[in-house]
Amino acid sequence: PGRVDGLFRQGEEEVDQEVPGLRGATDRECVQKEDGCEEPNNRIKTSKYNILTFLPVNLFEQFQRVANAYFLFLLILQLIPEISSLSWFTTIVPLMVVFTITAVKDVTDDCFRHKSDNQVNNRQAEVLIDALRDDRIYLTSLFFSQADLLLLSSSEPHGLCYIETAELDGETNLKVRQALPVTSELGADIRRLAEFDGGVVCEPPNNKLDKFTGVLFWKNNRYSLNNEQMLLRGCVLRNTGWCFGMVIFAGPDTKLMQNSGRTKFKRTSIDRLMNTLVLWIFGFLVCMGIILAIGNSIWEQQVGAHFRIYLYWSEVVNSSVFSGFLTFWSYIIILNSVVPISLYVSVEVIRLGHSYFINWDRKMYYPKKDIPAEVRTTTLNEELGQVEYIFSDKTGTITQNIMTFNKCSINGKTYGKSNNYSRTKTVPVDFSFNPLADRKFQFYDHSLIESIKLGDSMVHEFFRLLSLCHTVMSEEKNAGELIYQVQSPDEGALVTAARNFGFIFKSRTPETITVEEMGKLVTYQLLAILDFNNIRKRMSVIVQTPDGQIKLYCKGADTVLFERLHPSNEELMYLTSDHLEEFAGEGLRTLALAYKSLTEEHFKEWFKILQEENTSLDSRNEHLAAAYEEIEKDMMLLGATAVEDKLQEGVTETIASLSLANIKIWVLTGDKQETAMNIGYSCHMLTDTMNEIFIVTGHTVMEVCQEVAMLVCIHKKNKEEYFVLQAHALEADLENEFVEVACMCQTVICCRVTPCQKAQVVELVKKHRKAVTLAIGDGANDISMIKSAHIGIGISGEEGMQAVLASDYSFAQFRYLKRLLFVHGRWSYFRMCKFLCYFFYKNFSFTLVHFWFGFFCGFSAQTVYDQWFITLFNIVYASLPVLAMGLFDQDVNDENSMDYAKLYEPGQLNLLFNKHTFFICIAHGVYTSFALFFIPYGAFYNTAGEDGKHIADYQSFAVTVATSLVIVVSVQIALDTSYWTAINRFFVLGSIAVYFAILFAMHSDGIFVIFPNHFPFVGNARNSLSQISVWLVILLTTVVSVMPVITFRFLKEDLNPTITDQLQKSRRKQKPLQNYIPRVYRRNSRRSAYAFSHQEGFGELITSGKNINAVKN
Amino acid sequence: MYYRLQNFYQNHRRYVLSRSDAQLLGQDVNIQNSNCEPFTTYPNGTPVAPCGAIANSMFNDSIQLFYYLNSSTAIEVPLLKNGNSWWSDKNVKFRNPTSYNLSSAFAGTTRPPYWQKPAYLLDEEDERNNGYINDDFIIWMRVSAFPTFRNLYRRLSHTNQFADGLPAGNYTFHITYNFPVTKFKGQKQVVLSTITWSGGSNLFLGIAYTVSGAVIVLAGFIITAIHLKLRKKKTYFQR
């Protein structure tokens, strides 16, 4: 704090030259972008309302929804007296309720938005506004770059700058950026930097992370720029004190943002289905209206015409056709409750409830970082129960991006126990004897430390190699506080291991390496670094010990190294390779180590050749490789290391259960193929029982085409296989083939994909497979994927919140995904389906009674029920029980949902709510309405009550049918509810109680005397409900409506039980089955687990001395 | 004694609406605002009391029942015209306008066009059965649910030889024919009926209960059979 590590100065001069074909992106433009306004205003506003605008804006928004507009239309229809079959209040009261609930929800949502806006704006004020006002950007180590910068100079010599790009492309190794020599001279001279007035002409903003072309014009000179000078937004400065940069792209123009894709409005498949069904129902409604209107026309002609003496038509409406036309609209009003107003709002309420259940779930709360699961989009919950494809990022999501030295094999003996699977607690090795030991390092095998103490020369040589053969930089800040600046986490792990075991790498110069070996300082002459690259898959150093011996130390992939061993090593090689297999089987990343003693003459001779090759101009790299090859042969094998790329907790189990549930998991990573495959093995996504491994590595379109075409052929024979492909395959125009092959594989790993390609893969699957996709990731490089998948999940708690902000759900650990899908998703889907089924059933049985009645009342659009009943039925009497079911119901409890992955399948196959089940619900509703009308009709036809007075009058009939309906739907919900909570009971019984309370209240004398025209049912409840026959009718109606359902369900459970039925049955009879997660330890095919996230070029930096500053300072 | 009408659509929407409950409660309301059209006012502006199509079409035949003690002498069967409607209707829902006498209460209004006499002359003998609270009127105003219906007309007064109901013998009806039904192709009937514990003589409930009971028992047997048969086959949950 307080230390001004760097200063950033924006250029002030415009550049008038432009390179053809390139867009001029002068820094002036950037200035305008960032503080184009008078004062820097970078506020983000996502909230919609303030106190004043709320009411009009919200009402306007609500009426824009088709459903609400439709109900407004109905309301207008009801105001026309000729048509109005129902009073206006039957529509306006539910509409008001719906509007109020929606408005309340909007208000709470907006409050949250206001809050988060404030948070974001305040946070940004600390970083950006300050930076703009003072023209300064503090770019310190570990700082996230906020814009795409052109590196001008840095704290390191030669303008070097180390960055980590995990956020951008998922790669874990460090990368080097180097400023142009002309600008790096500026150093930390603030005055000169302030005078820097260069202009840049460069390519227009694009999404290619690894390419940049541009030209810097400064002091009448042109300097060409490439990706080497760029610090992209999202990268993190490592091992570098400070740096200066010039903004090239800011805001949406940055490569990261160009890669992040567009935000799309997400809807669930149930939503879409629901909309279709509502349209169908609407069509059905129109059909019913037409039937009844035709009926009315005929009735008017045949019967009504004669009845006119008692029932005048005013002159306007004398033709039967016109009467039919009016009746059509009247029936539309009456029957509109088949498309109930409360549907959408109830669905929203249920989803909101489910979201809160997720937010409140203690089992998805991560206590270490105090992060609960969070639902950021509340409308997608039920889709979590239908996921078929999971697209996962690797670094940070599946892995922790921490490497630990876990095991090793030295001279044919293995050391190290894995602590993961053994239940007994093993004591870690105590490194207190070593003052420079890294406290975090833990090792669980005491025999290794004993071998070292005993002075086993091979073990010493092994750790000496680890402490010498690397490209790590060290920094000793205070005595005893050694900090390594590592280029890759693997190397870090190895050097740290050597450090803890007493071979402490202390410092280096371009010519020497100083190591503290078992307490005494030894300085080696560094003669050559034979650098790493992806083809060689190994690196070597040649050093001269203080006593003059020249040694070559080499580490690399076992396959590569074993070919270059001295024949005498054969036995050891087989032993070691057995060990390597064992390590590989556990998913560890292995490296083989070897050394070789050189004679001075031999070395000098070779070194001469090397220098010649080094100066050769054409195909220098090949020549160098050949020279390296020359010396790296006949080596002596030392052993092998196994580094664990630490997975997040519980990843293996989670992935295993997810694949048991038929969910296909694709790993999309920007990292290398080796690393990606290794992770695939370590989390058991890839196992050796998979008999085919397809690796598509072709670089050109033609190659990829061939490979894919071949795969399509092979593929048809095999079932279990996995598929690894590199990004080049995605560029080829092979969508169909790709999807066909990939979707048939159990596991797909895509490596070297850019963020944009991640999204493309997701889109591809979405387009070609009608499946629900889920993307999970933690970094900025996953944003596009998260946005384009049906469901996006962000892992929270890591640096950088971009992924979380773009996601629909966020939680702290990958393993919570299982609970989210298996418990919350499954329940949500189950509840939503049940809710919808019941809801449609309820409304059909409620509404269609009018249809049947139409045939007996001259198609006059007379309602069966009291208007108040119609008003209140859907919002009071029948809404809460079904809401409670939609919120709380569960068929099996959470533990069983977690344990039995098969229970997840109905959701994927969309079995619980589809067009088929919808028609069953509708048929059920129609049947119920039929019983509800015709049983009272038969019972009341031409009869009188038990006291000889009225019973078959219209009002008594209305009360009887309404009471039957309330009881039937309550019994039905009681049958449908499989999980009773106190709230369910309260709502079901309460609804019936409330029904009777309101019934008697509305039929009471007092209210009639006050509003005689609105409550004409006075005394009806008392008179009707005291008749035995009315109760007999209600009972019969209930039994007849419900019995077929009970029969049907009983038979279904017996004849065609679902998985849930089977589970419930077996649970009743047996003890719960033990949770079984298959673990694969054994492997039957030979496989190298070599994976090394390292980059070429560091060796050269070291030998040239460019990055050595510790010595100079 | 009931009268029964067939094909009379008392449940037609416009018919059902065509009344003013406030007016029938004796309140002085502007019936122009009610649904009584076109039976609201006469062309000269006099309001109709009671207004609306229901009241206008009131069943106004008068039926008398005579019992032949022998072939020549007939005595009129004593019938009660009171107590035929619901207590709540008679005492709460319908009230005459208040005034010192009934005819003045209806002053300024006129009878519905189809009526032969104004409302305050419906039953001149009984003050408690006149005007809006006339039982026949109240019963008519409670519209039926279906186009075929029966309304209670008179109850037998269990006196003298009728103490145990109507004795076997010859009876005649004297019907004053005021209510035309042929015009709308309807029928009217007079029904003499006793009541049972479950109301009138409708067999539907009995039959329906028997049939559904039988079906349910049958279904129960079938389900049990299937269940027992399948229980032997173990269908435990398998992973």
TrEMBL record, chain A:
Record's catalysed reaction(s): ATP + H2O + phospholipidSide 1 = ADP + phosphate + phospholipidSide 2
Q: Where in the cell is it found?
A: Endomembrane system; Membrane
The name this protein carries in UniProt is Phospholipid-transporting ATPase
**UniProt GO cellular component terms:** plasma membrane; trans-Golgi network
Organism in which the protein naturally occurs: Gopherus agassizii
UniProt family annotation: Belongs to the cation transport ATPase (P-type) (TC 3.A.3) family. Type IV subfamily.
One Pfam match: PhoLip_ATPase_C
InterPro entries the record matches: ATPase_P-typ_cyto_dom_N (IPR023299), ATPase_P-typ_P_site (IPR018303), ATPase_P-typ_TM_dom_sf (IPR023298), ATPase_P-typ_transduc_dom_A_sf (IPR008250), HAD-like_sf (IPR036412), HAD_sf (IPR023214), P-type_ATPase_IV (IPR006539), P-type_ATPase_N (IPR032631)
- Alphabetical list of SUPFAM superfamilies matching this protein: Calcium ATPase, transduction domain A, Calcium ATPase, transmembrane domain M, HAD-like, Metal cation-transporting ATPase, ATP-binding domain N
- The active site annotation covers D393 (4-aspartylphosphate intermediate)
Q: What is its EC number?
A: 7.6.2.1
From TrEMBL, chain B:
Q: Does the keyword Zinc apply?
A: no
Give the UniProt record's GO annotations in the biological process aspect. Answer: phospholipid translocation
Record's InterPro entries?
Answer: CDC50/LEM3_fam
Name a single GO cellular component: Golgi apparatus
Sequence intervals crossing the membrane: 203-228
Q: Which UniProt keywords apply?
A: Glycoprotein, Membrane, Transmembrane, Transmembrane helix
Into which family does the record put it? Answer: Belongs to the CDC50/LEM3 family.
> Could you tell me what this protein is called?
Cell cycle control protein
Organism (species): Gopherus agassizii
